[in-house]
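Q: Structure for this?
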Amino acid sequence: MHKVALIGAGRIGRIHARNAALHPRLRLAAIVDPVEASAAALADEWSAPVGSLDQVLADPAIAGVIVASSTDTHLDYSIRAAGAGKAVFCEKPIDQDLQRARGAAGALRDARLLLAFNRRFDPNFQALKARLDDGSVGTIESLQITSNDPAPPPPSYVAVSGGLFKDMAIHDFDMARWLLGEEIEAVWAAGSCLVDPEIGRLGDVDTARTVLRTASGRLCVIANTRRSGYGYDQRIEAYASRGMVRADNVLESTVQVFNEGGAAGDRLQNFFLDRYAEAYRREMDHFADILDGAAPLVGYADGVAALALAEAATLSAKRGEVVRP
Amino acid sequence: MHKVALIGAGRIGRIHARNAALHPRLRLAAIVDPVEASAAALADEWSAPVGSLDQVLADPAIAGVIVASSTDTHLDYSIRAAGAGKAVFCEKPIDQDLQRARGAAGALRDARLLLAFNRRFDPNFQALKARLDDGSVGTIESLQITSNDPAPPPPSYVAVSGGLFKDMAIHDFDMARWLLGEEIEAVWAAGSCLVDPEIGRLGDVDTARTVLRTASGRLCVIANTRRSGYGYDQRIEAYASRGMVRADNVLESTVQVFNEGGAAGDRLQNFFLDRYAEAYRREMDHFADILDGAAPLVGYADGVAALALAEAATLSAKRGEVVRP
Amino acid sequence: MHKVALIGAGRIGRIHARNAALHPRLRLAAIVDPVEASAAALADEWSAPVGSLDQVLADPAIAGVIVASSTDTHLDYSIRAAGAGKAVFCEKPIDQDLQRARGAAGALRDARLLLAFNRRFDPNFQALKARLDDGSVGTIESLQITSNDPAPPPPSYVAVSGGLFKDMAIHDFDMARWLLGEEIEAVWAAGSCLVDPEIGRLGDVDTARTVLRTASGRLCVIANTRRSGYGYDQRIEAYASRGMVRADNVLESTVQVFNEGGAAGDRLQNFFLDRYAEAYRREMDHFADILDGAAPLVGYADGVAALALAEAATLSAKRGEVVRP
Amino acid sequence: MHKVALIGAGRIGRIHARNAALHPRLRLAAIVDPVEASAAALADEWSAPVGSLDQVLADPAIAGVIVASSTDTHLDYSIRAAGAGKAVFCEKPIDQDLQRARGAAGALRDARLLLAFNRRFDPNFQALKARLDDGSVGTIESLQITSNDPAPPPPSYVAVSGGLFKDMAIHDFDMARWLLGEEIEAVWAAGSCLVDPEIGRLGDVDTARTVLRTASGRLCVIANTRRSGYGYDQRIEAYASRGMVRADNVLESTVQVFNEGGAAGDRLQNFFLDRYAEAYRREMDHFADILDGAAPLVGYADGVAALALAEAATLSAKRGEVVRP
């Protein structure tokens, strides 16, 4: 049993608390949050003590730290936890500022840090990756990533989000890197404000298409919108030399209703915490593996690379030209 | 080019007229119908002469006769055409009366007669049969045939139809024999009147389930209703020793609409002439093959065997007991 | 928090232990099993004490008893637990012997007893039921239940299983009753031994079709085989006056591979503990509701009624005639 | 009955000959081809006379001319036929040279000319358009067009094809204009040579992604490859303010094979003449409507606009920058 501490008792922190508490190889040994009531409530739910960051870092019995606090603290807390010799589970993104993220290389490049791009742990995307890896369809040539939110966030969220590319597409940039198996050399992005004019007034876009290209010419399209109107749309198609692999959406049930209008399937799962519930469990399982000695499958360098692509896309969409990340 | 004559210019006759007229190896050389105006209109459409049955039978240049007249004439016209040395394309059913149909054995057993069970020529069911024959799933063990009409016929039709089992399920009995590869030894049928009480008053049922069993124990379920409420539902599932093959319905288009209620596919094709358009073309093509010398894939004996199963099912549903056909 | 005890630490007992232990309103307060090592291992896993049946029944703090022991003890333990004033969660079947099951009416008819037909709690079948109940497709008329195991059990299991109808189809009889909304008046069953001759030598069948009929003429077909060859096949189609609702299988992932042979989807979930994992959680949640005062959604009388249908089907298949349950 | 002449007895000419000959409102009155044997064979097949272009243009009884000759003659023959007062059915593309195509405006802008972008007449894409038009999903915002050939053409074809964007994507540019309902203001294209190095040596690409943007910010991605490895992949997804409409591929049959590896569907239709057989029929039907007085649904200006987009994409892919068409 590895003792782990959780920093951040918000929405995503509560998910990680549950998964850590129920994990057979982990014990949730401390919950830290500046809002005392949040920490206390979550601690009560899982019979875990409330703690402070300093206590956690000073406690040699705590082997791992889960950083699920606000984005602007990810980098700092990760550096401090790694400095204290802990394994780190750091929520995405590593930071919103590329320069600052790159500046942490000295502290984090060699850390045992899992950067929590949860989609790498989704069973459907893992199954897609497995088909690519086992040669079922030959060598990958291009990729279509569709990643649409069901409904737009409030403008107050958009204002501090870092923009669509850093906030939303950052997951897709990581998926592209993971699946293409080659670094990106060129980024074109086109963004529009079609959903909510308020988002445009804040200088952001709500609808975007990004094209990535690798050195050998592999191509990837990322399609994003803040509002699909039909649920949380999360799909990938990987085109290869002998065929194609697709991971489709997850529906709320397998029920279909047939009547004179046709056959209607159930809704897409609408909420990311439902869609990726198993992914969150699997990434916590991987954190347990890291505490057992495994190397992180996705770490600091991946967080920086995805952020660099997000910054390149932001720039490309603004300038209307190709950008090299 | 083989000259063929068509007897019957009704709905199904018009389909066969078109397919014969457009067939590269057939020439539509005569159209016969007691209703002169019907014959004349169809003859005009395909630039074919109107004729009489006697002329057709006496004309040595006419090699084949398509019997698409009313059910009670199928047997008589087929016997006369066969007697005149013609190849015969006889619409289903061979007759409504099993004794009478069996009585024609002397005249028809060795005739070049194609009994037009069109579903054997449907591309989807042929593809299913091909998968069974090529060993993709091993040896067949059981069968599920779903065969539902979109909406009930008028009571006037039901009154002369011979009942659900002879009128509607007769196709399914033929499919069962074709796919099971073994004769049926036992028939259980359960029928209810759930759709239209008028059908019940006529002594018929509108909803039925029939279970067939072969000597080796293979099982087949036939599900029928006169009114599906969602289109013309024509499906088969064949269960075998290493898997299952399914032929699904044909939709009006591949379009799906996604909105907050879910994903809605298009309607099932609703009308049998649309659903089986290609089947009708392929069975006419097979008739051309027969005129070229091929043996009929489905003939007089199959027509009698399907009728015997329909009679057994009718009896079983009435008596509530197992019947041997 | 309601304290509950678990009787039986076998495969299904371990599932219930986990779900009870993790349930926010339940506390797993005792584990009872004649095999001490089994009880101890499970108790250790969930930090629960090992106990004896007598201790459990005598302990007024224990409000509920989960009977997950061997089938022949279900009835006895349920009667004793109910007699001690406990709420009872009784695994299916209530018993293999219909007379004995009926004989427990005095003790159990009014007990707070949840008979654990897990499929009623499956999210897909619940979604299907909801569509029937909300009138999306009108009034139910007929039902197709497909329920195939992936691979046959060993003959040693078959020998004590009570036969296909009591062991396997019992679930389907319960589903039929639940969805048809009317009691069954007539049962026809046809069974064959096509999968494993050893099963036949034991006097059982491995492939069956059962037709049920209600007083108003509603029809239900249950299709069973002990070996599908393609996974755990669990589907329902409900035909109604204005359409049809279908609950389809659950696949291992949403991945599809497209190559020159076509598009291949992933496997069906193969193991019942995977397919029904959520159903087991939901039925435990319902047990918590019962402990809070709710009436059981499925109880003693349902267990007896399903067993009566299984006995009728067994008889019908043997005699080749219709049986009234 | 309108008399029509066909110019060009090659592969696509033969399709149009059949559809014209079988059309109830058209009579195929002349077949013209510089290769006499081709003209004669096709004329024989449909009992139509061989003719010359001059005869056709001079014959006042011929109301329509179908231009299905080689691409470099489309413009010239269309101008001559229009000049002779004929209605023109002109195969795509209008020309490979944008300047030349624009130069024909004086002659063709007001001609009764159907530019034969067959996909506008495909039943699936028409159904998708109908859903967009009837408001099922609100206002269109973006579009994903996937258009992949099964296997690459020989290099000799590629050499004279005008390049992937003019030869292959030209259809998709037309679809984008048709469905977006707004002209394109900006074109980004990225092309790679991943399939056949010989295509690269000829200065062309075999894999491309093109992003189009309208004045109001609507976005369209076109995905093309010369070799899918899994058939002729022709799909469209239209994203709108309240949902999404998708037109999926057409399979060779509805058959699915289930075995221990999963469920395998049939192949995609592989050949464009199969996939678009009905589209070719429907566009001939529209030509008959034009001869009856209807305005062409797609004409000269559409041919020029699609060509302008193809030229812009070719340029964009070469220069790596955004191009305004």
